[in-house]
Write a structure and sequence with these properties.
mainly beta, eight-stranded antiparallel β-sheet, beta-galactosidase, domain 3, 4 domains, 10 helices, TIM Barrel
């Protein structure tokens, strides 16, 4: 097709804000020589002052928190594979002391508490592991993770008292034995441990004391000397890893040169909500900062060391937030994505999420093991992967960002943060000022935008354009006209990107991944709604262009291409070096279904509305539905052999560079038997055969009230603090009892009115003057089907 020639579009725009990138030559040098290490295969981990390296190359590691003791061990393998497919490199997990030594001297490492098995399954999923060994963890666990029997001891906890340290040494010894042979130095996946948590910053209530006289565990004493002795105890227990970490925020002591301090950020802070402060204020987490700059310190980032001397790394970017009784906010998916984008722009070289996978608290020998401010069972956290393995929109948004971090780390991590004038002074509630930043080195890098702010409604910014001041001259993005940055949207745009010998001067679409596939290299981008995709190339480096349906123009010695979006509209460029580079511009919807998986013998791009991940070289697809349907799956590169699902061959149709398959899912409609015994009470029975051939059955409860409780045979198996969202329970793990006896739902009432106290000579009684709300409005079930798609060649047929 003959390309259509287009002329530059000029229209009135706002005065373009500018950002000066002429002084962004970073000083990269080795750092933290006491950390790092190698394994028997010769792989190495080391540090510079700006980032971590793996085998000498910049490594933008992505860590996701999952608590093994809060998730059924029979489902660990599935959970870890989903995390890997979501772009996670490192599984981070707490070792909660109370989960393993609830009775003094009796350790339990079995079943859901089997740390060793969990670590081995992480290795199978090709995930590294960071173990947060405490002894204090918090994590909304009873006593912050301390066993009840530590209460009433005649010595201070979280201190250098020898009696306390002896118990810690015993715990570390047990952990060390569980991890023996699983360390990086042995060829295992354990690359790091976290010592303590929020030491000398935060504490937790003793759940052993009456609520009326609630007593708190100490925040700790001893400063860096205590962290040093904890590290010594870990080494004595054989816990030898390349990375020792501790949390650095909130004034926590940092053992300089001996640990990597880790940070984070939450946009929902229920611990700040009190009777005197009932309204949540906007946080500063969505204002761009330079986390390597000396003048960028603020309340939760004020390190005692020179921030330019350490990599900026995170372990607790809020992947959502746990529902607290006093504050039950809903975490929007875009809030998690925007938080990660802001941290990345600020210099982050390790993205760590808390939580990435939700879970459920186990029930202890003597009672519930939760902190009283959160549900007794549920620790869903509104995480990208939910309490029952649900895949959420935040997972899909983060996945494409994590793929970007992996494929563009070599150009992203050595780049310094640059902010426009006055950026650090932007107030959280300010929605009028355009928020943007850059990371640049040697005149190339990435431009970051953020138009999301928690607890404030942002507005669209129209006719947006930014001037970059480079040593080689000025660059305007876009070259003419402007774009709309909608409310709630964050975005990343490359400039002067080295695309395999072709210089991409800029793109207004966001890069996701690159994939080598003969006869060239394929770059995948996606177009944000409101931002037309535009690619501007250095014409002198181009031998030829195959534009397809893409509009093109020559502008001042540059080649400008404006493609339509979608998988059928890729364009290719052949560099003078002979390398062929193909650019794909996906729609936003396609980008949310984009995965890069090692299936059918090689790494492939997969686009589908189903949840996709890899299992032993095959493609796994999971999807919910109430009726039989087929799921469309796009795969690149194409297969040279037939593929099959459930024993039936699938026919491939060519679509652009992709093969399209229609995969039957054979979903099932489930009709529940519900017997109501009151507005807030219901007995639910699942029909016989509901689980047959299904991966999961999800129960969805629409209700109003205070707390939702689900029981089987009088045992609490799930709960929920009402926040206006449907309450969801995965039922498979409760077979066969749920098939035999059913489920009982009970909603405790939400009270509206005035509490009146009636006193007497012997006791006092409280009475509510008003009304109580407890209503179950609807109960439905949806089945999730899983299909394995295999290559006939791989199957040996």
């Amino acid at each position: 097709m003959k390309p259509r020639k287009i002329e530059p579009v000029e229209r009135p725009v706002l005065v373009s804000p500018e950002i000066d990138l002429r002084g962004t030559a970073p000083r990269i040098q080795p750092a933290l020589p006491s950390l790092g290490g190698s394994n028997p295969r010769g792989d190495t981990i080391a540090f510079t002052n700006a980032y971590m390296t793996f085998n000498g190359k910049p490594w933008c590691a992505v860590s996701g928190e999952i608590h093994y003791a809060r998730y059924p061990h029979r489902e660990w393998k599935d959970a870890l594979r989903k995390m890997k497919a979501g772009g996670i490199d490192v599984a981070s997990t707490y070792v909660f002391w109370i989960h393993h030594e609830e009775v003094e001297g009796v350790f339990d490492w079995s079943g859901d508490r089997d740390l060793r098995l969990f670590v081995q399954l992480c290795a199978e999923a090709r995930l590294f592991v960071i173990v947060r060994i405490g002894p204090f963890c918090h994590g909304e666990v009873r006593n912050g993770g301390f066993p009840d029997w530590l209460y009433g001891r005649p010595f201070p906890l979280r201190s250098n008292d020898e009696r306390y340290l002896a118990l810690v040494g015993r715990l570390y010894g047990e952990i060390g034995r569980q991890l023996e042979g699983q360390y990086f130095k042995d060829g295992g996946p354990v690359i790091g441990v976290q010592l303590e948590n929020e030491f000398m910053h935060a504490a937790a209530p003793w759940e052993t004391t009456p609520r009326q006289c609630l007593e708190w565990i100490s925040g700790g004493t001893g400063g860096t000397a205590h962290i040093r002795v904890l590290k010594k105890l870990a080494l004595e227990a054989g816990i030898i890893v390349p990375i020792y970490t501790s949390t650095g925020w909130g004034g926590a002591p940092v053992l300089e040169g001996e640990v990597l301090p880790l940070y984070g950020g939450y946009s929902i802070c229920p611990w700040n909500i009190t009777e005197s402060t009932p309204v949540h204020s906007p946080t500063r987490e969505y204002v761009f900062r330079d986390f390597h700059g000396k003048d960028q310190r603020y309340d939760v980032f004020d390190p005692p060391y020179d921030p330019a001397a350490y990599p900026f790394a995170c372990c607790e970017i809020g992947g959502g937030m746990q529902s607290w009784y006093r504050y039950r906010a809903v975490a929007p998916a875009e809030s998690v994505e925007a938080m990660a984008v802001v941290k990345l722009a600020g210099g982050c070289s390790l993205l760590g999420y808390y939580m990435f996978h939700g879970g459920s608290n186990p029930t202890g020998i003597r009672g519930f093991l939760n902190e009283h401010v959160v549900p007794r069972i549920s620790y869903d956290f509104q995480a990208p992967l939910g309490e029952f393995g649900q895949v959420r929109d935040s997972y899909r948004r983060l996945k494409r960002l994590h793929l970007f971090c992996r494929d563009f780390a070599d150009q992203l991590l050595p780049a310094s943060t640059a902010l426009p004038r006055g950026a650090a002074a932007i107030e959280a509630k300010d929605t009028d000022t355009l928020r943007f930043a850059a990371r640049a080195a040697g005149g190339r890098g990435f431009l970051f935008f953020n138009n999301y702010q928690d607890h404030v409604q942002t507005r669209a910014h129209h006719d947006v354009a930014v001037e970059l001041l480079l040593a080689s001259g000025q660059m305007r993005i876009p070259g003419s006209g402007g774009f709309t940055l909608k409310g709630g949207v964050s975005a990343i745009m490359p400039f002067n990107l080295d695309a395999c010998g072709v210089r991409l001067e800029y793109a207004t679409s966001q890069p996701i991944a690159r994939l080598e596939a003969a006869p060239g290299v394929h770059f995948f981008f996606f177009a944000r709604e409101g931002i037309p995709p535009e690619y501007r190339f250095d014409r002198t480096e181009i031998e030829s262009v195959e534009p397809g349906e893409t509009d093109q123009a020559e502008e001042g010695g540059s080649l400008v291409l404006r493609p339509p979006v979608g998988i059928q509209t890729a364009f290719s460029i052949t560099a003078r070096s002979g390398v062929r580079v193909v650019f794909h511009t996906l729609t936003e919807k396609q980008s949310l279904g984009f995965s890069r998986l090692n299936v059918w013998g090689r790494e492939r791009a997969v686009i589908t509305e189903a949840d996709a991940y890899e299992s032993d070289g095959a493609l796994k697809l999971s999807h919910r539905g109430s009726a039989s349907a087929a799921i469309e799956v796009l795969v690149f590169p194409r297969m040279g052999a037939p593929v099959a699902a459930d024993g039936a061959l699938l026919r491939a149709a060519e679509e652009g560079y992709f093969s399209r398959y229609s995969v039957p899912m054979h979903a099932r409609r489930i009709e529940l038997e519900v017997r109501r015994s009151g507005a807030g009470d219901a007995e639910v029975r699942v029909p016989a055969g509901a689980f047959d051939g299904m991966k999961e059955v999800f129960l969805s409860i629409e209700y109003d009230g205070d707390v939702g409780n689900a029981f089987i045979d009088g045992r609490l198996i799930a709960d929920d603090f009402s926040n206006g969202q449907p309450w969801e329970i995965g039922l498979r793990r409760f077979r066969p009892r749920i098939e035999e006896t059913g489920l009982y739902l009970h909603v405790t009432p939400r009270r509206e009115g005035t509490l009146v106290v009636h006193e007497s000579g012997m006791a006092a009684q409280q009475e509510l003057k008003g009304r109580q709300v407890a209503e179950i409005r609807g109960i439905t079930a949806a089945a999730e089907r899983e299909v394995t798609v295999v290559s006939e060649r791989a199957a040996g047929r």
